[in-house]
Amino acid sequence: MLEFYFKYPSVLRRLRSGALGEEMDRIAAHFSQVGYKHTSAKVYIGRLARFSEFAAYSNDSGQ
Question: Cα–Cα distance between 36 and 15 in angstroms, integer?
Fold first, then answer.
């Protein structure tokens, strides 16, 4: 479902690489189902991806 919002393969890999990686497609589908506008959903997905990267880093460093 992320392909609906993002086209570049490198962006899709980054979105799916964090701690929430396995959930990002489900989250994107939920935003579409509940009627978020395309631009708003992209903003929120980007913010979640940033948090996901932070969570993956924090988890890897043992904090």
Answer: 19
- Quick: pLDDT tens for 16-55: 999 999 899 999 999 999 999 999 999 999 999 999 999 8
DSSP 3-state of 29? helix
> How many other β-carbons are positioned within 10 Å of the β-carbon of residue 54?
12
- Of 12, 32, 20, the C-alpha closest to 56 is 20
The vertex-56 CA angle with 53 and 50, nearest 5°, equals 15
**What six digits make up the tokens of 13?**
């890999």
pTM to 2 decimal places: 0.85
Answer for the pair 52, 18: CB distance below 8 angstroms, yes or no.
yes
